[in-house]
Amino acid sequence: MLLNVALTVMACVAYVVAFLYLLKHFLQKSQLNPFLLWSVLFSGLILHGLVLSMNMIQPQGIDYDVFNLISFTSGLLLLLGTCFSMYRPVVFMNLIATPVALIGLLLGELLHSPTQVIRQQGFAIDGHIILSLSAYAVLSMATIHAILIWLQNRELKKKQAKRLWVNILPSLQTMESLLFDLILIGFILLTAALTVGFCNIENFFGQHLAHKTVFSVMSWLIYLGLLVGRWQFGWRGNKAIRFSLIGFGFLALGFIGTQFVLQVILMRA
Protein backbone atom coordinates (compact mmCIF):
# COMPACT_ATOMS: atom_id res chain seq x y z
CA MET A 1 0.00 0.00 0.00
CA LEU A 2 2.73 2.46 1.01
CA LEU A 3 4.80 1.45 -2.02
CA ASN A 4 1.80 2.14 -4.29
CA VAL A 5 1.37 5.61 -2.76
CA ALA A 6 5.08 6.40 -3.07
CA LEU A 7 5.23 5.30 -6.72
CA THR A 8 2.05 7.26 -7.50
CA VAL A 9 3.46 10.43 -5.94
CA MET A 10 6.74 10.08 -7.87
CA ALA A 11 4.88 9.49 -11.14
CA CYS A 12 2.71 12.56 -10.50
CA VAL A 13 5.82 14.66 -9.81
CA ALA A 14 7.38 13.48 -13.09
CA TYR A 15 4.20 14.32 -15.00
CA VAL A 16 3.91 17.78 -13.42
CA VAL A 17 7.58 18.56 -14.15
CA ALA A 18 7.21 17.44 -17.79
CA PHE A 19 4.00 19.43 -18.22
CA LEU A 20 5.48 22.64 -16.75
CA TYR A 21 8.63 22.23 -18.86
CA LEU A 22 6.53 21.78 -21.99
CA LEU A 23 4.23 24.68 -21.12
CA LYS A 24 7.15 27.05 -20.46
CA HIS A 25 8.79 26.35 -23.81
CA PHE A 26 5.45 26.33 -25.58
CA LEU A 27 4.51 29.80 -24.31
CA GLN A 28 7.98 31.22 -24.87
CA LYS A 29 8.28 29.50 -28.27
CA SER A 30 11.79 28.43 -27.32
CA GLN A 31 13.67 25.30 -28.28
CA LEU A 32 13.21 22.49 -25.78
CA ASN A 33 15.58 19.65 -25.00
CA PRO A 34 13.76 16.57 -26.37
CA PHE A 35 16.05 14.10 -24.56
CA LEU A 36 15.32 15.75 -21.20
CA LEU A 37 11.57 15.81 -21.89
CA TRP A 38 11.45 12.18 -23.03
CA SER A 39 13.54 11.08 -20.02
CA VAL A 40 11.11 12.70 -17.57
CA LEU A 41 8.03 11.42 -19.42
CA PHE A 42 9.32 7.85 -19.67
CA SER A 43 10.27 7.94 -15.97
CA GLY A 44 6.69 8.91 -15.14
CA LEU A 45 5.34 6.24 -17.48
CA ILE A 46 7.51 3.51 -15.92
CA LEU A 47 6.29 4.49 -12.44
CA HIS A 48 2.71 4.63 -13.77
CA GLY A 49 3.16 1.13 -15.18
CA LEU A 50 4.44 -0.20 -11.85
CA VAL A 51 1.42 1.22 -10.02
CA LEU A 52 -0.91 -0.28 -12.62
CA SER A 53 0.75 -3.69 -12.45
CA MET A 54 0.22 -3.78 -8.68
CA ASN A 55 -3.43 -2.80 -9.03
CA MET A 56 -4.33 -4.94 -12.04
CA ILE A 57 -2.25 -8.13 -11.79
CA GLN A 58 -3.64 -10.19 -8.93
CA PRO A 59 -3.15 -13.87 -7.97
CA GLN A 60 -6.71 -14.60 -9.17
CA GLY A 61 -6.19 -12.96 -12.55
CA ILE A 62 -6.27 -9.46 -14.06
CA ASP A 63 -8.47 -6.86 -12.35
CA TYR A 64 -10.39 -5.04 -15.11
CA ASP A 65 -11.92 -2.47 -12.76
CA VAL A 66 -13.22 0.53 -14.75
CA PHE A 67 -10.85 2.95 -13.00
CA ASN A 68 -7.91 0.64 -13.65
CA LEU A 69 -8.90 0.71 -17.32
CA ILE A 70 -9.06 4.52 -17.28
CA SER A 71 -5.60 4.64 -15.73
CA PHE A 72 -4.24 2.13 -18.25
CA THR A 73 -5.73 3.97 -21.21
CA SER A 74 -4.54 7.40 -20.08
CA GLY A 75 -1.01 6.08 -19.57
CA LEU A 76 -1.08 4.39 -22.97
CA LEU A 77 -2.29 7.66 -24.51
CA LEU A 78 0.76 9.48 -23.14
CA LEU A 79 3.10 6.63 -24.16
CA LEU A 80 1.86 6.75 -27.75
CA GLY A 81 2.00 10.55 -27.79
CA THR A 82 5.59 10.48 -26.54
CA CYS A 83 6.60 7.87 -29.12
CA PHE A 84 4.91 9.81 -31.93
CA SER A 85 6.69 13.02 -30.87
CA MET A 86 10.06 11.30 -31.28
CA TYR A 87 9.67 11.29 -35.06
CA ARG A 88 6.69 13.55 -35.79
CA PRO A 89 6.17 17.26 -34.99
CA VAL A 90 3.43 16.52 -32.43
CA VAL A 91 5.22 17.21 -29.15
CA PHE A 92 2.48 19.77 -28.35
CA MET A 93 0.00 16.89 -27.94
CA ASN A 94 1.82 15.88 -24.77
CA LEU A 95 0.58 19.12 -23.22
CA ILE A 96 -2.82 17.44 -23.25
CA ALA A 97 -1.75 13.82 -22.84
CA THR A 98 0.39 14.49 -19.74
CA PRO A 99 -2.38 15.93 -17.50
CA VAL A 100 -4.75 13.26 -18.84
CA ALA A 101 -2.28 10.56 -17.72
CA LEU A 102 -1.91 12.29 -14.36
CA ILE A 103 -5.67 12.39 -13.78
CA GLY A 104 -6.08 8.80 -15.00
CA LEU A 105 -3.34 7.60 -12.64
CA LEU A 106 -4.97 9.33 -9.65
CA LEU A 107 -8.42 8.00 -10.54
CA GLY A 108 -7.06 4.47 -10.89
CA GLU A 109 -5.18 4.61 -7.60
CA LEU A 110 -7.85 6.35 -5.52
CA LEU A 111 -11.11 4.93 -6.91
CA HIS A 112 -10.41 1.40 -8.11
CA SER A 113 -12.31 -1.23 -6.15
CA PRO A 114 -10.20 -4.08 -4.75
CA THR A 115 -13.39 -6.06 -4.10
CA GLN A 116 -14.26 -6.47 -7.77
CA VAL A 117 -14.53 -10.03 -9.05
CA ILE A 118 -11.40 -10.97 -10.96
CA ARG A 119 -11.86 -13.59 -13.65
CA GLN A 120 -9.12 -15.83 -14.96
CA GLN A 121 -9.03 -14.90 -18.64
CA GLY A 122 -7.45 -16.76 -21.53
CA PHE A 123 -4.66 -15.22 -23.60
CA ALA A 124 -7.08 -14.48 -26.45
CA ILE A 125 -9.43 -12.45 -24.23
CA ASP A 126 -6.56 -10.57 -22.61
CA GLY A 127 -5.20 -9.89 -26.12
CA HIS A 128 -8.60 -8.57 -27.18
CA ILE A 129 -8.69 -6.22 -24.18
CA ILE A 130 -5.15 -4.92 -24.77
CA LEU A 131 -5.89 -4.35 -28.48
CA SER A 132 -9.12 -2.56 -27.57
CA LEU A 133 -7.34 -0.30 -25.09
CA SER A 134 -4.62 0.46 -27.64
CA ALA A 135 -7.20 1.32 -30.31
CA TYR A 136 -9.05 3.53 -27.84
CA ALA A 137 -5.85 5.38 -26.89
CA VAL A 138 -4.81 6.00 -30.53
CA LEU A 139 -8.29 7.13 -31.53
CA SER A 140 -8.40 9.37 -28.44
CA MET A 141 -5.29 11.07 -29.77
CA ALA A 142 -6.94 11.37 -33.18
CA THR A 143 -9.98 13.00 -31.58
CA ILE A 144 -7.84 15.55 -29.73
CA HIS A 145 -6.03 16.16 -33.01
CA ALA A 146 -9.33 16.69 -34.83
CA ILE A 147 -10.42 19.29 -32.25
CA LEU A 148 -7.13 21.15 -32.67
CA ILE A 149 -7.59 21.14 -36.46
CA TRP A 150 -11.10 22.55 -35.97
CA LEU A 151 -9.71 25.38 -33.82
CA GLN A 152 -6.97 26.06 -36.35
CA ASN A 153 -9.40 25.99 -39.29
CA ARG A 154 -11.80 28.31 -37.44
CA GLU A 155 -9.10 30.94 -36.96
CA LEU A 156 -8.12 30.75 -40.63
CA LYS A 157 -11.70 31.18 -41.84
CA LYS A 158 -12.50 34.06 -39.48
CA LYS A 159 -9.21 35.81 -40.31
CA GLN A 160 -8.63 36.69 -36.67
CA ALA A 161 -5.89 39.16 -35.84
CA LYS A 162 -4.56 36.98 -33.03
CA ARG A 163 -4.20 33.44 -34.32
CA LEU A 164 -3.21 31.33 -31.34
CA TRP A 165 -3.64 27.86 -32.86
CA VAL A 166 -2.39 28.82 -36.32
CA ASN A 167 0.80 30.21 -34.79
CA ILE A 168 1.62 27.39 -32.41
CA LEU A 169 0.54 24.34 -34.42
CA PRO A 170 2.14 22.85 -37.56
CA SER A 171 0.54 23.70 -40.91
CA LEU A 172 -3.05 22.61 -41.53
CA GLN A 173 -1.89 20.16 -44.20
CA THR A 174 0.59 18.55 -41.79
CA MET A 175 -2.07 18.37 -39.06
CA GLU A 176 -4.56 16.65 -41.37
CA SER A 177 -1.93 14.20 -42.57
CA LEU A 178 -1.14 13.30 -38.95
CA LEU A 179 -4.85 12.97 -38.17
CA PHE A 180 -5.34 10.31 -40.84
CA ASP A 181 -2.15 8.52 -39.80
CA LEU A 182 -3.59 8.22 -36.29
CA ILE A 183 -7.02 7.15 -37.54
CA LEU A 184 -5.50 4.47 -39.79
CA ILE A 185 -3.41 3.01 -36.93
CA GLY A 186 -6.40 3.14 -34.58
CA PHE A 187 -8.66 1.54 -37.19
CA ILE A 188 -6.22 -1.34 -37.70
CA LEU A 189 -6.02 -1.93 -33.94
CA LEU A 190 -9.81 -1.73 -33.60
CA THR A 191 -10.26 -4.20 -36.45
CA ALA A 192 -7.86 -6.63 -34.78
CA ALA A 193 -9.61 -6.18 -31.41
CA LEU A 194 -13.06 -6.84 -32.87
CA THR A 195 -11.83 -9.86 -34.83
CA VAL A 196 -10.24 -11.47 -31.75
CA GLY A 197 -13.30 -10.59 -29.69
CA PHE A 198 -15.80 -12.12 -32.14
CA CYS A 199 -13.74 -15.31 -32.30
CA ASN A 200 -13.87 -15.73 -28.53
CA ILE A 201 -17.46 -14.85 -27.60
CA GLU A 202 -19.03 -17.57 -25.44
CA ASN A 203 -22.27 -15.98 -24.29
CA PHE A 204 -23.14 -12.81 -26.22
CA PHE A 205 -25.88 -11.58 -23.87
CA GLY A 206 -24.69 -13.23 -20.67
CA GLN A 207 -21.33 -11.44 -20.93
CA HIS A 208 -23.08 -8.05 -21.37
CA LEU A 209 -21.56 -7.62 -24.83
CA ALA A 210 -24.59 -6.51 -26.86
CA HIS A 211 -24.37 -2.75 -26.29
CA LYS A 212 -20.59 -2.73 -26.34
CA THR A 213 -20.48 -4.66 -29.61
CA VAL A 214 -23.13 -2.53 -31.34
CA PHE A 215 -21.40 0.74 -30.42
CA SER A 216 -17.96 -0.61 -31.35
CA VAL A 217 -19.13 -1.88 -34.74
CA MET A 218 -20.87 1.44 -35.46
CA SER A 219 -17.63 3.24 -34.62
CA TRP A 220 -15.67 0.86 -36.88
CA LEU A 221 -18.06 1.54 -39.78
CA ILE A 222 -17.76 5.32 -39.32
CA TYR A 223 -13.96 5.19 -39.31
CA LEU A 224 -14.04 2.89 -42.35
CA GLY A 225 -16.28 5.36 -44.17
CA LEU A 226 -13.95 8.22 -43.27
CA LEU A 227 -10.84 6.40 -44.55
CA VAL A 228 -12.59 5.37 -47.79
CA GLY A 229 -13.86 8.94 -48.22
CA ARG A 230 -10.35 10.27 -47.72
CA TRP A 231 -8.77 7.93 -50.27
CA GLN A 232 -11.54 8.03 -52.87
CA PHE A 233 -12.93 11.56 -52.55
CA GLY A 234 -10.22 13.49 -50.73
CA TRP A 235 -12.33 14.22 -47.65
CA ARG A 236 -10.74 16.73 -45.28
CA GLY A 237 -11.58 19.71 -43.13
CA ASN A 238 -14.88 19.81 -41.24
CA LYS A 239 -16.17 16.58 -42.79
CA ALA A 240 -13.16 14.65 -41.50
CA ILE A 241 -13.51 16.31 -38.09
CA ARG A 242 -17.21 15.43 -37.80
CA PHE A 243 -16.63 11.79 -38.74
CA SER A 244 -13.73 11.57 -36.25
CA LEU A 245 -15.79 12.96 -33.37
CA ILE A 246 -18.86 10.83 -34.12
CA GLY A 247 -16.75 7.67 -34.50
CA PHE A 248 -15.00 8.28 -31.20
CA GLY A 249 -18.30 9.11 -29.49
CA PHE A 250 -19.67 5.66 -30.33
CA LEU A 251 -16.40 4.03 -29.31
CA ALA A 252 -16.42 5.82 -25.96
CA LEU A 253 -20.02 4.74 -25.33
CA GLY A 254 -19.10 1.14 -26.03
CA PHE A 255 -15.78 1.14 -24.22
CA ILE A 256 -16.13 3.28 -21.09
CA GLY A 257 -19.89 3.95 -20.99
CA THR A 258 -20.99 0.32 -20.90
CA GLN A 259 -18.36 -0.67 -18.35
CA PHE A 260 -19.20 2.32 -16.13
CA VAL A 261 -22.94 1.58 -16.20
CA LEU A 262 -22.41 -2.11 -15.42
CA GLN A 263 -19.86 -1.63 -12.66
CA VAL A 264 -20.76 1.68 -11.00
CA ILE A 265 -24.49 2.16 -11.62
CA LEU A 266 -25.78 -1.43 -11.83
CA MET A 267 -22.98 -2.74 -9.58
CA ARG A 268 -22.35 -5.82 -11.70
CA ALA A 269 -18.88 -7.31 -12.11
Describe this structure in words.
The protein is mainly α and 269 residues long. The protein has helices at 2-28, 34-56, 66-85, 94-111, 123-158, 164-168, 172-199, 210-233, 237-265; strands at residues 57-58, 61-62. A two-stranded antiparallel ribbon has the order 1-2. The protein is flat. The chain starts with a helix and ends with a helix. The model has no long low-confidence stretch (mean pLDDT 84).
Q: How is this fold's topology laid out?
A:
Layout: H1 2-28, H2 34-56, E1 57-58, E2 61-62, H3 66-85, H4 94-111, H5 123-158, H6 164-168, H7 172-199, H8 210-233, H9 237-265
Antiparallel strand pairs: 1-2
Helix pairs in contact: 1-2, 1-4, 2-3, 2-4, 3-4, 3-5, 5-7, 5-9, 7-8, 8-9
What is shown here, in short?
Helices cover 78% and strands 1% of the residues. By secondary structure, it is an all-alpha fold.
